[in-house]
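Hi R.,

Quick one: here's the Mur ligase central domain-containing protein sequence you asked about.
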Amino acid sequence: MTADTAQIHLPAVKAGGRRISITRKAKRAAEIEEIEDVNEVAHDYPRPNPEAENHHKEENGYKNRKERRGSSQKTLYEPLPEPPAYSHANKKTMQIKQPAGPIMIKPGLEATARSLKRIQNQSTPIVHIAGTNGKGSTSAFVDALLASYGYRVGRFNSPHLIEERDSVSVGGAPCDASVWNSTQRDLLAHDTNFSTLTNFEKTTVTAFSILSSKDIDIAVVEVGMGGLLDATNAFERQGRDSIAVITPIALDHQSWLGDSIEEITKHKMGIVTTLTKAVVVAPQIHSVVVKIIETRCSELGVPIYITESNSLDASTPLKLTGSHQLDNASTALSVLRALKAHCTGFVNVDLSNDERVKHTLSQVTLRGRSDRQVIDGAIVDGAHNPAAIMRLRETLPLTPHTFILAFSQGKEVDEMLTLLARPHDSIIFVPFSTPEGMPWVKSMDTAELEERARKLLCEVDISTAENVQDALRQCQLNEANDVVIAGSLYLVADVYRMCS
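And here's the predicted structure, written out as C-alpha cells:
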C-alpha cells in the first residue's frame, strides 16, 4: 500500500463543503447516529451578517443557501460574519461555564487580537489544530512531513513542559531563551495592551510574534483549550491561507467547555470560518462529532476531509506507539493533501513515495508521548483524560505494571483508574508541581486519591510518595518492572525537569 493509496478513503471535495465519498458513502450514512435536534447544541452561536455572508458566497460562485433549501430549513449553525475572524467569537455571544473559584482564565479573543494585529507579517499560512487528544502528536507529524519536502516550519504547542519558550520551535529546534525574553521585553515596551493579557494570551502573542519574525513557510498552531474562544483563534484570516484540523474529541475540561460531546464539539469547531480553506477531521470516537462537523462545514461552504481509521498501513514503524498514533499520522497526511489542494505554495508535496513517507513518520518523536528514552525502564506519557488513558492502556502488555500517577483537580479520576489498572498492578500517587504562571492548576491530594483507589480497585497495590523522584526510588528498591508515569502533562514536566 502506498502513501497515496493509504489515503484512498479520504473523500473528494467540492465547493460548498459537500463531500463525495470514494468508497463508503452508504456505509458512512449507516454509521452516523441520528440526532433528534442537532440545532439544540448550537443555539447560542452568533447571529449572521447576511449581507457580508451572501456577498462572500456570490463571489465564490455559491447561491444563497436559504433560496436553495427554503427559508423554513433549519441549520446547525448560523453563518459567521467576517472579517475579521475574531469578531464573531466573544463572551457575549457564547458563554463558557465558569469553574468555581478565582477566574485565572479569560475566554475571549478581543484582547489577544489587539496585540496580534500589531504583527507586521499577517500572511504566513497556518495549520490550526483543535481537539481533545492527539493535537501535539498530529502537529509533530505535520511538521516532520512538511520539513521532508523542504518547507521551513514554525510550531506552537501548549502547554509548555519546562519553560514557556519550549512551546515554540522553528525548523525543529526549540526557541532560544534569549529570543523569547527579548521578544517579551519588546512587546512590553511597545504594546500597551500586552501587559493586560492573561499568561496564556501573552504566551500566544509572544509565540506568534516570534514565528512571524522567522523565515518560515508555514506555522502549525495547537489550540490551548476549546477553540472558539481560545487565544490562538484570534489570528487574522484575511489574506492568509489556513487549514483547520479537528483531532479526536472526548470529554475533558467540562467545567469550561460543557458536559456533552456536542457542546465540546461546538467549541472546537469555533476555529472554522468561511475564510478557512479546508477542514481535516481525524478518526473520531463519537460519530455525532462527524455529523456536527459535516453540517457546520456545509453551512460555511468549507471543504472537509474525513480521515478514516486504519487508513495507514499498520506495519508503518512509528516511535510514537499505539493504533491512535497511526490515526494521528494518517490525519497529518490528510493535512498535507488539503494544503496542496487548497493553499498556494505547496506544490512540492508528493505523497506517492511510500517509503519516503514511512521513513519520515517513523522518525517522529514528541516529549511526553510514549517516551521511553527519558528514564531507563519507564514510559512517560501525558495521558490525562479517560480517552487518552484508554489508548495508553492499549499500548501496554498484560504483564503487571507500576503506575506513578498524578491528576489535576476536577479530572474523571475514577474512570481513568478503572480503565488503567489491572489485578497485580501497583499504583504510586504523587503530586505535581504547580506550573509557573498557572496558579489555578492544582494537583489532587494523594491521600484522597489513595482512598478512592482502594474503594475502586481489587488486587492492586496502592501507595503514595512525596514526589515523582521518591516514587522512582520506591520502584528501584522494589525492583519494579514496566514503570509508567502518566495522568498529567504537569507530572511529565516534573520528570523532564528532574532529568535535566
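Residues 378-499 form a domain with the Protein-Tyrosine Phosphatase; Chain A fold (CATH 3.90.190.20).

Cheers,
M.
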